[in-house]
Amino acid sequence: MAKGLLIHNPKAGKGNAELLPKLVAALGEVETVSFDELGGLENAEHRARAAGCQWVAVAGGDGTVEGVAAALIGTDLPLGVIPAGTYNNFARSLDLPLDPMEACAVIKEGRARPIDVGFANERPFFECLGAGLDAALYPIGEEIKAGRFERWIDLFRRAYRYRAQRFSLTLDRPVATAITFGSTNESRHLVRRLTRNHSSEIILSALMLTVSNGPYFGMNFAVAPEQRMDDGLLTVTVFSRFSKLQLWWHFLSIAYGRREYHPKSITLRVAKLQISSPRKLPVHLDGNPQKGLWPVEAVCRAAALKVFRPAALSPRLPPGA
What we know:
Number of strands: 16
CATH class of the largest domain: Mainly Beta
Strand order of the largest sheet: 6-5-16-13-8-9
Order of helices and strands: EHEHHEHEHHEEEHHEHHEEEHEEEEE
Strand content: 25-35%
Shape: globular
């Protein structure tokens, strides 16, 4: 196998100091560079080409993996993923082994295959875009994860004060074509109205919506369990009839990869859509809060990135299956 560049983040997950020499031994001819030495994940392509490498592997969590992946979009350098983080959503979404040594074996097979990448106003995302309540709470949640537990009060206060917003969606196809079998919303009138809507525009009131390129985000939330990263489509989930308490319980039920279906959302499948509302709403991409990203045009760019992965992704189960 040709020479590769191995980027590792010793701070990811449990930070196993003994992992790096094992990875080098398993991968063969590689040049290694740490996350800190790289000087920015956007430098991955330049570093690889300067070292004469023909592929790039990343050992780290989702933040490191997705940062390098973004730098390789549209290039001929395949990406190898060695999960070493806490949740490893990128690897899970591609049915990659979570064991580092088994992940190295997938890379050594040398079979790079394309995957899709989502873009929001030209900014890439791999897991999902979120707008509304979850995006409003993400910054405080990150502070709590960093040890500022006193921020729990602020999180609950912000959640309590947040109100449902009116989302205007313009799809790349008729609503009746985009709506999926997962949309068995408890409001039969709403579902019936949407399935008869042959225009491409829809307005819904909701606490939040997500646009998913992969099935998981955050704490392995299976927000779009049927979503694949190689089918050229995005899954739009509008949480249209949840109370805040119901929404909290729903996300607890789908954490860590569980697939409990809750019939209070509308699900659409599109390759492109525009999202707007009467007021500017908070947005996150893969859990990273964004500034100046409203309104949003979300697009799925098919086959935008090459990744060492199995030949075919496992069929995704429909909600409730």
